[in-house]
Amino acid sequence: MKPPAAIGALGLAAMPIRSAVPAWHARAEAAQLRELCVSVAAKGGRLAALWGADERDLGEGFALHLALIVDDLLFWLTVPLPAEAPVFPDLADVFPAAGRMQRAIRDLLGVRATAADQRPWLRHAAWPEDVFPLREDFGLENWYGAAVEQYPFVAVAGDGVHEIPVGPVHAGIIEPGHFRFSVVGEKVLRLEERLGYTHKAVDKLFAGRAVAAGAELAGRISGDSTVAYAWAYAMAVEGATGVEPPSRAIWLRALALERERIANHLGDLGYLGNDGGLAFGLAQFMRLKEDVLRLNAELLGHRYMMDYVIPGGVERNIGRHGCDELAEQSERLAREVRVLKDVYDDHAGLQDRFLACGMLAPALARKLGVVGLAGRASGQPFDARVVPGFAPYDRLGVELHLQTTGDVAARVAVRFAELAESLRLVQTIAGDLAPGQIATPLKTAGGRARGIGWVEGWRGEVVIALECDRGLIRRCHAHDPSWQNWPALEHAVIGNIVPDFPLINKSFNLSYSGHDL
Known about the structure:
Mean pLDDT: 94
Largest sheet: 5 strands, mixed
Strand content: 15-25%
CATH architecture of the largest domain: Orthogonal Bundle
Low-confidence stretches: none
Strand order of the largest sheet: 1-2-5-4-3
Oligomer: single chain
Number of strands: 15
Number of domains: 2
CATH class of the largest domain: Mainly Alpha
Distance between the termini: 35 Å
Helix content: 25-40%
């Protein structure tokens, strides 16, 4: 099959990957990598994920992998690197999001980019600098104990400048992350993040599992995005094994994904109201979110729909009565959310906190590669649900909602719009479900195979890249959209006052766990 023009123009021998979304794979030499990435960026393409792998047990060296989005196509690029000197060209000036990914690859695999910033990212002195946990000769039984680390934050000098460290341990139940503010008075001059405290070695935990058993781990990578990760993993497995899930299962997956989006948008809108001084908003939205979670538990087996999406289909069916309950709840929620939106829009104090706060201009958002709802609030028209041929969304007609001001108010507006759209989608799916099977038995791939999944979670696009051999996982890399969006938060807070940071941070609501895999 001839590759599409956007891929063919790169001059590589690309091969299609069997997937529910248009996907291609090619190999390139390290000497070609930078030129290829510059070409992709020039065409409006972007970096979806960057990771590495140890192939020495196969008689090869190391491999660098990139997932690139080019003209709504997912392009998996593999770059072989020698075992003796696994070095590749710095890509951070082409795709700024690559900077931290490159540092993580260095910490975990010892594969190094020719970048100026060689500071550790995930290691936190938890293992020696010359030890690399993702190498095949590293065992999980190895434990070195944690040492004291003096991380070289970038210092800001000047009259009246001082630093405020926040975290990594926070007063609430959120996960750990360190934020170093350089301020004059209360005005923020610079924010530098230090993350990686929740690193769990997920790539290593996947290795050696049966592909069917990997679904349980995939669904637990990020607890608020279990459906998105489980679907992306199932998509990757189905591509690698040649299994096609039944039509009804695909529609039920979409229903679950939109229910996940609804629950998270409801919760975030409540917390944003609370952070803006309107506790009434938190009370009302959390009441609505609880209704959603309870019906999830009743119909889908779990409040957060754990283990509902499985390779080959879904775990349980929904009968006619259940579909009617979902449609009725969606209709009621839509009415109540419209009333609450009017309250938020008309509340002068809340709007004073939201408007022109935490601004991220569209040009900067594009340069940083910001995705998901945060990207759409800054004019970036990216949503994997509108990719041509992605069932069943290609038949649902998903409406893309964009804002261009890029402030907290814009991110709130996108949430309200996407919440209304998701409620419409659930009503449509629940009223249109055709009869049929809900799962296809999983087959075992005979030899080595690869598959890739790409799903628009509520926070942004989730990517899962799977390599398996005779039914066992050789490598599985999961990528969270927070990788792209955490650096944007550092820019959005500049020029604001320190007390506005919690509000700006919540308007992005990025994942620590998803970022720290």
